[in-house]
Specification:
Layout: H1 3-15, H2 18-24, H3 29-43, E1 48-49, E2 56-57, H4 59-82, E3 90-97, H5 103-115, E4 119-126, H6 128-136, E5 142-150, E6 160-172, H7 183-189, E7 191-193, H8 200-211, E8 218-221, H9 225-233, E9 238-242, H10 243-249, E10 254-257, E11 264-272, H11 279-292
Parallel strand pairs: 3-4, 3-5, 7-8, 7-9
Antiparallel strand pairs: 1-2, 5-11, 6-9, 6-10, 6-11
Protein name: DNA-binding transcriptional LysR family regulator
Family: Belongs to the LysR transcriptional regulatory family.
Domain HTH lysR-type: 1-58
Length: 297
Amino acid sequence: MMITELKAFVLLAETGSVQAVAERLPLTQPAVTRQLQRLESLLDVSLLDRRAKPARLTSAGQAVLREARKVLAAVDELKRAASTNAQPQGTLRLGVVHALADAQLADGLEALGARYPGLGLQLASGWTNELLPRIDQGELDAAVVFMAGTAGGVPHAPGRLLATEEIVFLAARKTALGRHPTLLELNQIGWVLTPDGLCGSRSALRAAVESAGAPLHIAAEVHDVGLQLSLAERGLGVALLPRQRAMALRRPQLRRIAPPGLRLAMQVSLVQAPHLGALQQAVDWLAQRLAGQDRQP
């Protein structure tokens, strides 16, 4: 690296004095002289016409000065980008799992933009098993993901744990069900699920139903949460949804059901790429914001 040598050279061009450079850095005058000589040796060119008093820049020195200022400006910009204390700038590439892409997240992202006006946002949705590789491959800076399963048996979520949330069962109020329907009674109606074969809550549901002596009856597999709930409202299946999202959507035609013997939950976490530089401050703030939201069962 020639950064220290370039700094000495630029200061000399600006001050015209080795003594002034020595005071600014601060170094001894012989040390400044050695830096200038080392730069000339590294570039294999004479930067100063030492016959003049004081020494003047050669034509090569003038050319090097222009480029040296660009290099030093770029280094300063690089330090600002790498500093975790710097104001976040540029684009934060954020992934979010489908089940959590809701109004709460939108509120958090709006607040993030207000806090860091120089920060742009590039949002991508997907499943946990799709988003995690994108972080490893450098395509995303961070992702909000979840792991699901039976309450008390949820696999450990990767990254920074934000919350633990209950997954609730929702059925139409008009459906002829008792006050506490069994899992097999719900299975006869059928389940409205997202088409994610790797989802832990789906695996836990399948295991519980099959343990009760029946195959899992899937009535519908759809991505859109609104369609899931509309189907459930019409008695065409039983939907599963994170509790907080179910409350926010406010569907009075649905009622929450707690089948005996099965409770499902999810752990929400934020996973990030290493060495985010100034973006780290924004990721930390977003994590604190999301963790502060009520997602407890």
